[in-house]
């Protein structure tokens, strides 16, 4: 295959940016340190981020001109340091991106300061009691006409701003969300800029910042809980793109429905989901590179009884790792397409939210599977911190929850899906080669068109069954729709969102396949995408058989085809992992290099002074 | 249900031991600390272990009289401190248990010292290059007739003893495994006791101990790499129960086959697997307790739009957590039975290895699933170290690899299975209520007898297909059996081992069901075991449909039955989790108690000074 073409397609951005990143990551600051105090971990993460911003390789203004550039930054940082990547996503997307989206002329002074970290921001949305249902948050901004200020308060324990990244060590500003009270009326959730530290980095009066301490991972991220007591903020610090308060205390908004204002001001969560997906996609590629590279050099027992056989050669190893490689490359392909639709959504505006949500869910859960499996298949070496699987796994966990719990986002996807179909903005997928009544006659399912039709069939079936149940329960039996959704049809909702995401991903893969130039590259991609789709159909085979769209004989043959498909991919694995754009020089994992040599000298689990 | 009866059955040991453990764990030493240096984490783990041994609640001699007592200790330590539990399993099982099993009269002085930690041991089996295929290890003991000593060497980088628990901080002795060279002949792998530190805890001459540093978790365990250079050990330090060297240098062994000696001296790995399973089973119970208890008090949005509904009420939460609860209680039931068969194997000697291996595999992987899901369903709170999911997850990862990689053990299970059937020591399971030709007519699969027959059908089918393939490839086509097993039939092998383990677990569950006294308790157990088996059949539904033992209509009805089954269990969940014998007073997780109150005062992620 043409490794360059493969790598460029996986890169998902202008490939000319790649050498800049590769050279930036040569800086020794990206060498990880492990046994260091918590505070040093945080400073380390900050200094890595500072190295990136000093290189002027990205800007918050990219959201206007080249949002993909920001996602690319996340993909690299997810590989080299998930903590620094998390600090970055808060600075550039949640904080910076929100300021970009919600600000007006009067806030422009912030942009260069965000880019060079002279303003380090945090994003104070989540409250202890409102991690879900944030629209009901208790933080208030009361407008004081006399002084033309907002008075910010977190009036209860439950309303402390919780999990606030960058707050403990580095932030001097915060974008705070709260119920906006003007002339005694709650005008809904808005955002104000609050200075939280002075020039000496002491907390401002009325601001209390509590360190949240040790987490299961990403300890380079300084998460804190923030309390505000009568903190006064100038009127102009309100982010007033969509709503504003006049000096005299008149509230105006282009959004009349008060709860809707919440969604308007928190829309950065949307690009945030692509940022999280990007961090995790990067980590996935690194994880697979490390796990497979190690398997290719680690020796296990061979037919002679001697330790002379790379464990990669075992079918066990290949059957565990290669379906995940196929799924990862396929989701990467879909992720790239979704990034570009986000950047240029013309004609797809109504689908962007669904796409960003499902992209995060599928990519993050896939990282979890990849990290767990690579760790397990790398045995003891996989358990050492310096071989990195642990931190990628922790990133997956952070990703599942951050910017919206995956399972809750799946519900959001389905609601939008039903809404779009109901409003005729979009329809259900159309089965192509094989309409439903043809499928049961297909003897060989291992064909991309057949597989795509199977995925579509499942999606359509799940959609229809959900709509039928909701109609019956809510329209006929007059049950409360919220209750039916929450208490009766959860599996249907979750499965439908997944079916939508996977079908769409496969379609994006096929689109790319058609435009791949080199015939060998095309073949490798086809092998990968076929395995991706087959693995999905295998998982849901009970569904297909019980719906009689697959015959028993075809199912048996299909089950047997999987190891053959894995074997076909196994011959290309080395080329594939070397084309994942992993900055190998900045990964510093003993097991991708001469791990025996690494263990010749004492390194105490560290890599700083090791030759790798 | 009768919570006492339920709890006693889950406890799996004499329930009179429970209050002793509960009261021991009241000691404040079991309060965890998080943001402390690596060395303090290790000392903490040691002091917890010391507290346990000071209570004289267990002894290495229990392996002779009451091995279950040792497993019970592991179950408690898995809940309160996986690091201390890991140090304990090395001291009492791998080191102490090996000494118990391989020693003769001349080593008896060690037993009381192992019990009171005046001898702290390590188990030097694994080498850097021989984590798998340990029988080919490179460490040597050369017998020197002149001085009547063994000379111990790790001659190469690859032969350094790797991952050695207790070695960096606390051990003064090691049980070292190596190729035993007597009069120039390699007599295979044996074990010698080596003093590695003097009374001042300085390393003995020729012994070098390198700290392995930070791992993804269990950092309270002091893992090191050990190098031996011409270390002299008295002849009497050879563990000589099965093999011995006379003063004059004559090697004698009751095992004539040299490679077999390896399995004889490493047999503690067998009880070790039950120890690992016990640590993980304990952790599983605690994990479920924490995750479900939190869900029952954490409020999310309700029909009114207010945050007034415990997230436990959501079907999403129940469908995610309760099948895992069912599987965990069922595997716990099987685990208890296997512990007791290990203690009294009469008539089952040929199955003990299979049982111990599969118990570890199923229990450990289940802990991984439980920890991942509880963490995810607990959102951000689940990510804080003090809520413990992270460390339980890390324990699962350690467990997958320790005492034999799970996937490799699955191969061992299948080899023993085929050997036992071949030697007519045991047969294939017999289908009971519903022989194969009856199954397709069963309209309702939700019946324990039907489910058991389905599990048996799959096991028998997988067994026969594996044997048929091996016969064809090896006997007819003369292929090398090792190569066929490693390169061609991996999925069949892995699926068969799993099918065997799950079918056996369900049978053990049914046995217990028959002897459960209280009718309500029995009902709850039946609900749990049915969900456990249903979940398995659902996962493999494609297999059952393609083999035409389940009709399409039965399959559809069955898929729809799962949420109903979950709902049925949901009403008993509180009673069930409160009957898991979790020492709640020693878990110290803010989210099982008043987590809002915990967040009222700054605790910096710690629990030491918190009211919980």
Automatic annotation (TrEMBL), chains A, B:
Residue numbers binding FAD: 126
Occurrences of domain Acyl-CoA oxidase C-alpha1 (ranges): 269-415
Residue ranges occupied by any Acyl-CoA oxidase/dehydrogenase middle domain in the UniProt entry: 122-231
Molecular function terms from GO: acyl-CoA oxidase activity; FAD binding; fatty acid binding
Leader peptide range in chain numbering: none
Keyword Nucleotide-binding among UniProt keywords: no
Pfam families named in the record: ACOX, ACOX_C_alpha1, Acyl-CoA_dh_M
Keyword terms of this UniProt record: FAD, Flavoprotein, Oxidoreductase
Tree of life domain: Eukaryota
Reported cofactor(s): FAD
GO cellular component terms listed in the entry, alphabetical order: peroxisome
Gene Ontology biological-process entries: fatty acid beta-oxidation using acyl-CoA oxidase; lipid homeostasis
Catalytic residues in the record: 403
UniProt record similarity statement: Belongs to the acyl-CoA oxidase family.
Name this protein carries in UniProt: Acyl-coenzyme A oxidase
Organism the protein comes from: Halteria grandinella
